From TrEMBL:
InterPro entries: CBASS_pafABC_assoc_protein (IPR051534), DeoR_HTH (IPR001034), HTH_11 (IPR013196), PafC-like (IPR028349), WCX_dom (IPR057727), WH-like_DNA-bd_sf (IPR036388), WH_DNA-bd_sf (IPR036390), WYL_dom (IPR026881). The keyword Chaperone does not apply. It comes from Synoicihabitans lomoniglobus. This is YafY family protein. It holds the Pfam family HTH_11. PROSITE patterns: HTH_DEOR_2 (PS51000), WYL (PS52050). Residues 3-58 form the HTH deoR-type domain. One of its GO terms (molecular function) is DNA-binding transcription factor activity. Keywords: Transcription, Transcription regulation. The lineage of its organism: Bacteria, Pseudomonadati, Verrucomicrobiota, Opitutia, Opitutales. The keyword Transferase does not apply. It comes from the Bacteria.
Length: 310
């Protein structure tokens, strides 16, 4: 990125945030703090009112807005593909909003670029993936996360037990074809994840909740099952199927090593029943290396399956 592009991008970043530190700008653009200070000075000299508050950070002066930004054709194409993904994984509400936004983008593109964008939309599709359940609650979840508002849930747990809770939304996650609301549960006094297809009723409250500064969704997801019986297992996969295994294991993966005849993956699991069936879905392209108890669970599953055909 050349300096002119970076200066413009810094101005957009300042406009998109209430306040941002010099260190955050440096990390975002992978530049030094000294370069950040020079760039902020250059923006000020160009007439963009950059406000600085000692010990807090930088922002654009209140009431100042950059002029409307035109998208490049490449950016518009990326948004077009993104809108298709949203329509597939986000349900009717978010999909409709994405389609409407895409029409607005198309309307400001030059004629030739607009035709190419429309043609792209006709020839790119998200195929072979089931619709994601629970999307009817997705917009409300996203709004409460953005507005920092508490939320009342009527939730059905996997065992069928129903409960009512007030939660403080922290984020929304799409994981293994399910949408989850990650929230601070006032009943449990701890972060919890709620699968949206198990939410029977949802009502935003007027109460504003402050952000939990030290909470990171990525960290939470890696430890979300620590309260259950978890263990680390070692599995072997042949090279043709390892990409699927990596994709489906997601954040539970601990390590991967390539051998002469395939890959050895180390991952966290909670319970043997589901992982045994999952391993068998790969047929002879996967096997358990450790622990012996999981090998036994796979053998038991094979025996139960064979009994159906005797």
């Amino acid at each position: 990125m050349n300096r002119i592009d970076r200066l413009f991008a810094i101005a957009l970043l300042l406009q998109s945030k209430r306040v941002i530190t010099g260190a955050e700008i440096a990390r975002h653009f992978e530049i030094s703090l000294r370069t950040v200070y020079r760039d902020l000075g250059a923006l000020s000299e160009a007439g963009i009112p950059v406000a600085a508050e000692a010990g807090v950070g930088y922002s654009l002066a209140k009431g100042y807005f950059l002029p409307p930004v035109a998208f490049t054709e490449t950016e518009a194409q990326a948004l077009s593909i993104g809108a298709m993904m949203v329509a597939k994984f986000g349900g009717a509400d978010t999909g409709g909003s994405a389609a409407a936004a895409l029409l607005k983008i198309q309307s400001i593109m030059p004629a030739e670029a607009r035709e190419r964008l429309i043609r792209l939309g006709r020839q790119v599709t998200v195929f072979g993936t089931h619709a994601v359940p629970g999307t009817e609650h997705l917009v409300v979840c996203a709004q409460t996360v953005a507005d920092q508002r508490a939320l009342r849930l009527h939730y059905r747990k996997p065992d069928g037990v129903r409960s009512q809770r007030v939660v403080e939304p922290l984020g929304v996650v799409l994981y293994q074809n399910y949408w989850y609301l990650v929230a601070w549960c006032r009943l449990r006094r701890d972060p919890r994840s709620f699968r949206l297809d198990r939410v029977e009723e949802m009502a935003p409250l007027t109460e504003h909740v402050p952000p939990r500064q030290n909470f990171r969704i990525e960290t939470y997801l890696c430890t979300a099952f620590s309260e259950t019986d978890t263990e680390v297992v070692r599995l072997w996969f042949s090279s043709p199927v390892v990409e699927r295994a990596l994709r489906e294991l997601g954040p539970c993966l601990r390590s991967r090593d390539q051998g002469d005849d395939g890959w050895i993956l180390e991952t966290i699991v909670w319970g043997h029943a589901w992982i045994a069936r999952w391993i068998l879905s790969f047929g002879s392209e996967a096997r358990v290396l450790d622990p012996p108890s999981l090998r036994a669970a796979v053998r038991d599953e094979i025996a139960a399956l064979a009994a159906h055909y005797t």
